[in-house]
Amino acid sequence: MAEEKVVNVVAQWAKGMTFVARADSGHAVVMDATAKEGGEDSAPRPMELLLISYAGCTAMDVIAILRKFGIYPDDFRVEISGRRRDRHPRHYREVTLKYILRGRNIPRERVERAVELSQNKFCSVTPMFKALADVKYEIIIDENALDR
Q1: Residue ending a domain, choose from 24, 43, 62
Q2: For position 74, which CATH number holds?
Q3: The pLDDT of residue 147
Q4: DSSP per residue, the chain
Q5: What are phi and psi of 144, to 5 degrees?
């Protein structure tokens, strides 16, 4: 049986509502709140970082899978939006992702398969969102290749 991976993060208070979180990797992320919440609006909010994590996780999966399929889009991005509850705890109740690719001759069925694999197997962030939110996605393929 595989051993579970333990990940450690320390969020150190810097000042006001600013915190610097450092992970086992040694990399740091700064978080802050709005001025109304006592912060300086100098960094992303923790709830924004959740969406950033989701977008990054699934984007990395999809591009890695597409590469295995021999597909190299000219451009690729994931746009994500989340709708939060009005009352506490104000977790996301609805999340929408847009997978946007640009390039010629990109087979839609392969992109759909890559997204499906990310959403249902590989992206570790997905199940945490699906536990509390309605997750939807769409795929947009722009056939206009970028001039390089």
Answers
A1: 43
A2: 3.30.300.20
A3: 57
A4: -PPPPP--EEEEEEETTEEEEEETTS-EEEE---GGGTS-S-S--HHHHHHHHHHHHHHHHHHHHHHHTT---SEEEEEEEEEE-SSSS--EEEEEEEEEEE-SS--HHHHHHHHHHIIIII-TTHHHHHTTSEEEEEEEEE--PPP-
A5: -80, 105
Let me know: does 34 contact 41? Beta carbons within 8 Å: yes
Total domains in the chain come to 2
Amino acid in position 129 = F
Could you read off the pLDDT tens digit of each residue along the chain, which spans 148 residues? 778 989 999 999 999 999 999 999 999 999 999 999 999 999 999 999 999 999 999 999 999 999 999 999 999 999 999 999 999 999 999 999 999 999 999 999 999 999 999 999 999 999 999 999 999 999 999 998 655 5
* Structure-block tokens of residue 38: 């006592």
**Residue 62 domain-assigned (yes or no):** yes
Pair 19, 59 in one domain = no
Q: Which domain holds residue 34?
A: 1-43
